[in-house]
């Protein structure tokens, strides 16, 4: 009885955490999404393509140098019930060394290469790393509400500055960098005031053995993050090489719609990390993770199927005509984003059982597939080929991780749910491509009604 009530309490905590993360990480980012009319009206496809490509390159540099150290800090904070400052100090020491390496590398690049707005790009990368560290540490102290508020502050400030600088000050796309920098600074300042992270680092003991332990744990994560970047972002480089910067700008706008799904995935992932890390690896973990993965896969399928008709309606309203080619990318990009999110969801199980090497190996295999497929797929199918390559790579990634977890903890695959989800997304895709907006609205309402009916039946069964 006590165990059952404990499970219910954990599920309630998970739902509560998901809601909090939705407000902070997802809802706040949607402010940026609804600035698409501003971006597509005032910024050319070529300029937006350059900005997107610079952030793409920057992300891999940050991931490679910082080794996703913030994820490791969060994981080890769960092991410390009393002195959570110890893993923060140890992870912070690694972070400081990484920052020195990052700045030296960036200065060298700036000295030998003439890159437009390089000082701004360097600042964005540094603040991106600091913000990631601060947000994960805040979560480690269960300051999830402050985490959410900080995300809203960052996005709101950046969005407001973008409107001010682009529309009224008539600045070029450099305003995107400036806005992001100020947004990050406001987020860091807020978290410092609320959580006092720097004080906790200063007043904690530094143990070399713990630094070594965290570094060994985080090394595969950093390499995995780079490999994950190749899966998610390398194709933008391939597009700019095989096609043009303008095509990359169109691709970036198409991905903004896929990010609607990614926003929801992010909030579930953050809540899932807290939930999975506390679950760890026990005798019931196989059944627990099977139920969680099945439910998440069904959620993603329903989310994709309902987003397609919504985007069919919103696209001509939000996007300027010069970016209209992005419309045909939507279904495949949504599927790729969903499979990417599911891969991350499954990957967090490996974090929980402290088997990070497998994450890296499975991601590298998928990377190789994407590297082999990206160029021929883009040559054959254009911008959609980039998404097809990503979708194939992440599907193989998930299959590999499933096989390993099946052997290690007894993770099971529920084929009935998988087939149902595939049929649902297949129907939604065909309606999106071949039928009018009216039919898409009707399909959205149909799915909504079915969900309501099933929800009511489920509640009645639970009451009995």
Plain-language structure description:
The protein has 464 residues and is mostly helical. The protein is built from 17 helices and no strands. The protein has helices at 2-33, 36-42, 45-66, 69-77, 85-112, 118-140, 144-168, 174-195, 197-202, 208-242, 245-279, 285-318, 330-352, 356-381, 383-409, 415-434, 437-463. Helix 12 (285-318) packs antiparallel against helix 13 (330-352). The two termini are 18 Å apart. The model is unreliable at 1-9 (pLDDT under 50).
Low-confidence stretches: 1-9
Shape descriptor: globular
Helix and strand sequence = HHHHHHHHHHHHHHHHH
Main structural class = mainly alpha
- Name the helicity range: over 70%
How many DSSP helices?
Answer: 17
* DSSP strand tally: 0
- Measured between the Cα atoms of the first and last residue, the distance is 18 Å
Largest sheet: none
Kindly report the average pLDDT value: 83
The proportion of residues in beta strands is: under 5%
Radius of gyration: 22 Å
Short description:
This protein has 464 residues and is mostly helical. It contains 17 helices and no strands.
Features:
mainly alpha, single chain, disordered N terminus, 464 residues
Give the SSE map.
Layout: H1 2-33, H2 36-42, H3 45-66, H4 69-77, H5 85-112, H6 118-140, H7 144-168, H8 174-195, H9 197-202, H10 208-242, H11 245-279, H12 285-318, H13 330-352, H14 356-381, H15 383-409, H16 415-434, H17 437-463
């Amino acid at each position: 009885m006590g165990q059952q009530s404990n499970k219910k309490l954990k599920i309630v905590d998970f739902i509560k955490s998901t809601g909090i993360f939705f407000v902070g990480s997802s809802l706040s980012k949607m402010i940026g999404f609804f600035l698409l009319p501003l971006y597509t009206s005032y910024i050319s496809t070529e300029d937006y393509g350059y900005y997107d490509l610079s952030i793409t390159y920057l992300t891999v540099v940050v991931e490679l140098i910082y080794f996703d150290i913030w994820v490791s800090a969060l994981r080890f904070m769960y092991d410390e019930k009393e002195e959570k400052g110890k893993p923060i100090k140890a992870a912070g020491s690694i972070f400081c060394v990484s920052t020195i390496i990052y700045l030296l590398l960036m200065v060298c690049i700036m000295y030998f290469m003439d890159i437009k707005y390089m000082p701004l790009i360097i600042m964005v990368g540094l603040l991106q790393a600091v913000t990631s560290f601060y947000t994960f540490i805040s979560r480690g102290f269960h300051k999830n509400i402050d985490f959410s508020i900080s995300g809203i502050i960052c996005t709101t400030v950046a969005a407001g500055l973008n409107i001010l600088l682009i529309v009224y000050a008539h600045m070029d796309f450099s305003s995107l960098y400036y806005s992001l920098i100020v947004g990050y600074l406001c987020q860091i300042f807020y978290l410092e005031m609320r959580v006092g992270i720097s004080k906790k680092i200063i007043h904690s003991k530094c143990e070399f053995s713990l630094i070594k332990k965290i570094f060994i744990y985080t090394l595969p994560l950093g390499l995995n993050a780079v490999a994950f970047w190749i899966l998610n972002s390398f194709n933008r480089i391939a597009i700019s090489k095989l096609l043009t910067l303008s095509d990359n700008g169109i691709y970036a706008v198409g991905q903004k719609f896929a990010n609607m799904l990614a926003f929801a995935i992010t909030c579930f992932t953050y809540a899932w990390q807290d939930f999975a890390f506390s679950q760890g690896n026990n005798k019931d973990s196989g059944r627990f993770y099977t139920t969680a993965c099945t439910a998440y896969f069904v959620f993603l399928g329903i989310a994709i199927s309902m987003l397609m008709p919504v985007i069919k309606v919103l696209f001509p309203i939000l996007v300027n005509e010069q970016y209209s080619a992005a419309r045909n990318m939507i279904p495949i990009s949504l599927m790729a984003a969903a499979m990417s999110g599911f891969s991350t969801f499954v990957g967090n199980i490996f974090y929980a059982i402290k088997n990070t090497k497998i994450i890296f190996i499975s991601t590298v295999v998928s990377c190789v597939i994407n590297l082999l497929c990206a160029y021929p797929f883009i040559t054959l199918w254009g911008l959609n080929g980039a998404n097809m390559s990503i979708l194939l790579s992440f599907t193989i990634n998930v299959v590999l991780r499933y096989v390993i977890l099946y052997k290690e903890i007894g993770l099971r695959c529920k084929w009935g749910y998988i087939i149902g989800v595939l049929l649902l997304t297949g129907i939604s895709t065909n309606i999106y491509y071949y039928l009018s907006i009216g039919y898409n609205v009707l399909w959205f309402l149909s799915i909504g009604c079915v969900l309501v009916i099933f929800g009511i039946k489920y509640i009645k069964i639970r009451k009995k």
